[in-house]
Amino acid sequence: MGTIVGWGSKDVRPDKFLNEMHVPIMSNDYCDRIFTDLGYTYRKHSLICAGFANRGIVPGDCGGPLQVEKDGVFYLVGITMSSFVAHTFRNFIPDVYIKVSSYCDFISSATHNEVHCLPNEYSGRELEQKCGERFNKLHFERYLENCMIITDAVTGATKNVCRESVPHK
């Protein structure tokens, strides 16, 4: 589980209060399957995805932290990059974060070794080891139940369409 923090708001103006939310960090395999299915390339060496079912970032949160707490200390594992563009995908597609560990050498060099990555930083494998394939399969099945590919009969172009809202079970 990760923690995101931001000033974003669903309104046009930024929120007056700093918001905090706990979001599940999804496995690389799950994210790769979802984004590949939508026709996107998911670069798992440099990205992390987290959040689902309307639990994630909103406009104004870009650049904010995705943190993991361990023994009372928060560690930065991701930097907010993007919420999935289409509102209809919001219930199914996790948000995307830049994976900090991919830039450890640069960060260390730019800060004259004042900041460095921990050797056992969260890698995404923790979720897969704890929850296994069943966790990924359940989320992917939920996505497939609520999204479909529509093919334009004239042009042959395809697009994914998801139901607007899915009730929590």
TrEMBL record:
Signal peptide bounds: none
InterPro entries: Peptidase_S1_PA, Peptidase_S1_PA_chymotrypsin, Ser/Thr_Proteases_Immune/Dev, Trypsin_dom
Residue ranges of domain Peptidase S1 in the record: 1-112
GO molecular function: serine-type endopeptidase activity
Highest taxon of source: Eukaryota
Keyword Disulfide bond appears in the UniProt entry: yes
Pfam families for this protein: Trypsin
Keywords on record: Disulfide bond
Keyword check for RNA-binding: no
Entry's Gene Ontology BP terms: proteolysis
Family listed: Belongs to the peptidase S1 family. CLIP subfamily.
Protein name: Peptidase S1 domain-containing protein
Organism: Globodera pallida
